[in-house]
Amino acid sequence: MGRVAVVTGGRRGLGAALVDELLAHGARKVYSTARTTYADHRPEVVTAELEVRSTESVAALAELAPDAEIVFNNAGVLLPAALLTGDLEKATETFEVNVFGPLRLARAFAPILAANGGGALVNMHSVLSWLAGSGAYGASKAAAWSITNALRVELEGQHTQVVGVHAGFIDTDMVSAINLPKSTPADVAARIIDGLEAGEAEVLADDVSASVKEALSGPVEQLTLAAVR
Question: Which CATH fold topology does 4-228 show?
Answer without folding.
Answer: Rossmann fold (3.40.50)
